[in-house]
Structure formats: C-alpha cells, structure tokens
C-alpha cells in the first residue's frame, strides 16, 4: 500500500512514459505468465509447482493474495521471487565485473 | 559485450538512452521547502503512518471478504493511495507535498522492513521442498531460469518497440521529498538533511534485536525469541559486505537464519519436521494438532503475520514425532531440554504440550 506514495512521486515520469511503461508491462506480464504455464505443462510439472511459479513476476506482498486464491504453495512462490531477485542481483554484479 | 546475454545488451542500450535525459533534466529540490522532522516527531509519524497504512490494507481486506469478492488488497490499496494523492495534488500541490512528507517515516519503516515479510514463507520452504521429488525441483529451477531470460528479452524488445513509436519528452521535472527524487535517484543533499548514515554494525536495531534474543532465550519465550531472531537476521544480512549481499541478499540471510532458529527450537522441543501429502497423514496431523498447538503459537507473534495470513501455517506443518522409531531420539532431546528447563523454568508450557505424550 505504501508503494502508492512512490507511485505518486514518479507521476511525471509515469505520465510521460505511459505507453512504454504500461504497454511494456502488459506485454511482458502476459507473455511471461503464458510462457510459465506452457513450460510447466510441457515439462509435466506438478500443478502445485506450476501454479506457484505463475506469481514469480511480482513482489511477494502482492503475490500472497494471488497465491491464496489459486491455492498455490506460498513457500515455492516465495522461493521463485527470491531466486529471481537474487539472480538479477548476481547478474548485475557479474555485468559490473565484466564491464 | 559479446559475452553478455541478449537481455543484458538490451539493458545496456536502455541505460545509454537514458543518460542524456538525466543530464538535461532541470533539478528542482524540494528539500529546502520541507524541513526534516525531529526524531520524536519522526517516531510518532512512523508509528501513526504505519498504522494508517496497515489499517487501510486491513479495511480493504475486510471489505472484500464481506463482499465475497476477493481482490488483492495490497495492489488495490496502492492504487487508492495513488489516486488520493493525485486528487490532493490537483486541489493543492503544497498539501500533497506535506502529506507525502508526513508519511515519509512510515514509508521508510516499511521500506526497511519489507524483506522481513519474505521470511515466513521462506522458512516454510524446506518443508515444501522435502515433499517434492528431485525432478520437480529441477523443473522448478529450469522454469525460473528460462522464464527470467524470456522475461528480460521480452521486456527489452517490447519497451524498445514502444519507445521507438512514442518519443519521450526528456524535459522531466524532478521533485525531491525526503531525499528521493521523482526520477527514483536518491538526492544525497536532501538525504543528508533528513537522515544520518549509521554503520550497519552499530545499528541500534541490531543491538536491540540481539539483546531481545538473549533475553527471550533466557526467559523461554520462544515466540518473541523468533521475532527478535528475524529482525536480527535481517539487520545482520544488511550489515554484510556489498559483495556478499550481491550473491546472498539480506532477505535470504534473514530467512536462512530464522529457519535455523526455528529448527533449533524445534529440535530442543523434540519436534519432528514432517509434512503430509496423503489424506492419512493429514488426518494424523489433525490428531496431533492438540499436542502441537504450543508451536502454532509461534506464528501468531511472527512479525509479518498481520500481512501474511499464510504464515500462520508455518508451524502448523511441524508436528511431533509420535512413532516408536522416533521415541529414542525424542528422549535424547528430552534430556537436553529437561536439563535446560531445570536451569530456567519454562513459564508457559506444561509437559502435556511438549509433544512427547508425557
């Protein structure tokens, strides 16, 4: 909820880049969720694993209500989020070293 | 450059595009307008503001439950706050800045404490992974890795496509409140007026959490011990060198150390980590719930329980070992625990709640 204030602070940037930000987020979210579902289906993942991975694109406080609704596993969903965050941090660190 | 992945190349391209924009931006710092609050005022604002934000989230949750229409309260609350701020800004921009400034301590509190909300589900993770076959775990990681690559590539391509269609106005006005500019960069000048930088190892929160851990361990108040251990783990994770944090972020350190404390307490209490998949095991769990309700209480005082209803299930999944094979181990642990209890009597636990069937 507190992120609403941050969102307000960024309003000028948001308004000026509304199309790339909203459009990019919509396209990425849709494709990523579809990709996750598709790969989970192709790899014959257990439903609990596949559903838990669907919410990996959002922060955990936002993912929790969705996880609750789709009856996924919160531990796996949290792990997916954290692994992504950790992976991104590691990628940035490696990129900085290479650069 | 050739060694970078496609996603990293796109990320670099975006940075190159953004650099001239930042250089051209006229900087308007509002820190001069908004005076930094005194420590007492900041403390009150942090408390009241945090409660107000939490109250809004809970009110939305109650409303959505009453209406039998479940909406993600965090997201809807965020949008409501954003819209309210936009309306206030339309009516009076100065009032909007004042509201923003008033909520700054509460925002800082939530910002610093966010990783703490990740730890309850991560403490639960080892229990979850223990019932998954190895192949499922491998598939889990495969999906994450391929998903990240696809996400980065898709984001880069989609954004590039949309940016090329719409030229962004580079003359962005930056407004800074509480040291954070509207471009998302921290304004060092403003920060220096609002907050003092504290050495992470000298942090009063770290010291208080450590003292709390020692105190509650001595008093056998396990729930409060876990709460303090969570805060201590988070602060400890934040105090580690940047190179270590790049590989092992504070949230993982926090979850790992908290899980270790929970496991340690479970061991001393003679609790078997056990998760059920079959109906029979679930039935056994329900039967054992009476014996394990002491441990369930851990989650009631867990720091993020108010934000995460699921965390209440963390220790519901931990059940006492009641089979004959586990008896010997239980008795060994019981001797350790009894020795410990003799020295420091445990006020809130009668023997029948310890899961040993005594």
Task: Please explain how this structure is put together.
The complex is a heterodimer of chains A (99) and B (358). Chain A is mainly α and 99 residues long. Chain A is 83% helix and 0% strand. Chain A has helices spanning 3-9, 11-16, 18-42, 47-54, 60-70, 74-98. The N and C termini of chain A lie far apart (37 Å). The model of chain A has no long low-confidence stretch (mean pLDDT 78). Chain B is mainly alpha-helical. Chain B contains 13 helices and 5 strands. In chain B, the strands form 2 sheets. In chain B, strands 1-2-3 form a 3-stranded mixed beta sheet, covered by helices on one side. In chain B, strands 4-5 form a two-stranded antiparallel sheet. In chain B, a hairpin with a 2-residue loop joins β2 and β3. The chains are: A mainly alpha (99), B mainly alpha (358). At the A-B interface, α1, α2, α3, α4 and α5 of A face α2, α3, α5, α6 and α10 of B.
What can be said about this structure in brief?
The complex is a heterodimer of chains A (99) and B (358). Chain A is mostly helical and 99 residues long.
């Amino acid at each position: 909820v507190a992120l609403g204030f941050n969102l307000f602070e960024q309003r000028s940037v948001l308004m000026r880049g509304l199309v790339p930000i909203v459009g990019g987020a919509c396209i990425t979210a849709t494709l990523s969720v579809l990709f996750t579902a598709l790969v989970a289906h192709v790899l014959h993942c257990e439903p609990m694993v596949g559903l838990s991975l669907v919410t990996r694109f959002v922060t955990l406080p936002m993912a929790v209500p969705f996880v609750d609704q789709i009856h996924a596993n919160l531990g796996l969903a949290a792990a997916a989020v954290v692994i992504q965050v950790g992976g991104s941090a590691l990628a940035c660190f490696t990129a900085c070293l290479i650069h | 450059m050739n060694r970078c992945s496609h996603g990293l190349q796109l990320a670099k391209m975006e940075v190159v595009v953004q650099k001239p924009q930042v250089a051209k931006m006229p900087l308007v710092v509002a820190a001069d307008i908004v005076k930094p609050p005194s420590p007492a005022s900041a403390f009150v604002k942090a408390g009241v503001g945090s409660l107000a934000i939490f109250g809004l989230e809970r009110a939305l949750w109650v409303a959505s439950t009453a209406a039998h229409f479940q909406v993600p309260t965090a997201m809807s609350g965020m949008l409501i706050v954003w819209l309210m701020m936009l309306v206030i800004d339309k009516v009076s921009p100065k009032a909007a800045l004042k509201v923003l400034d008033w909520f700054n301590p509460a925002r800082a509190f939530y910002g610093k404490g966010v990783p703490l909300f990740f730890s309850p589900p991560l403490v639960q993770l080892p229990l979850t992974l223990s019932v998954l076959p190895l192949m499922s775990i491998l598939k889990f990681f495969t999906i994450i890795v391929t998903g990240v690559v696809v996400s980065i590539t898709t984001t880069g391509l989609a954004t590039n496509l949309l940016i090329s269609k719409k030229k962004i106005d580079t003359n962005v006005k930056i407004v800074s409140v509480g040291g954070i500019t509207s471009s998302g960069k921290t304004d060092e000048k403003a920060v220096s007026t609002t907050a003092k930088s504290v050495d992470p190892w000298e942090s009063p929160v770290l010291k208080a959490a450590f003292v709390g851990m020692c105190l509650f361990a001595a008093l056998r108040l396990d729930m409060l011990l876990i709460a303090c251990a969570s805060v201590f783990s988070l602060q400890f994770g934040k105090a580690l060198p940047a190179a270590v944090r790049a590989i092992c972020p504070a949230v993982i350190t926090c979850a790992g150390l908290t899980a270790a404390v929970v496991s340690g307490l479970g061991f001393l209490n003679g609790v078997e980590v056990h998760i059920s998949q079959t109906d029979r095991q679930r039935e056994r769990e329900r039967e054992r719930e009476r014996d394990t309700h002491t441990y369930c209480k851990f989650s009631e005082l867990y720091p993020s329980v108010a934000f995460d209803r699921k965390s209440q299930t963390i220790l519901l999944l931990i059940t006492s070992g009641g089979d004959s094979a586990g008896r010997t181990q239980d008795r060994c642990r019981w001797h350790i625990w009894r020795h410990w209890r003799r020295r420091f009597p445990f006020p809130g636990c009668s023997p029948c709640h310890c899961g040993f069937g005594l």
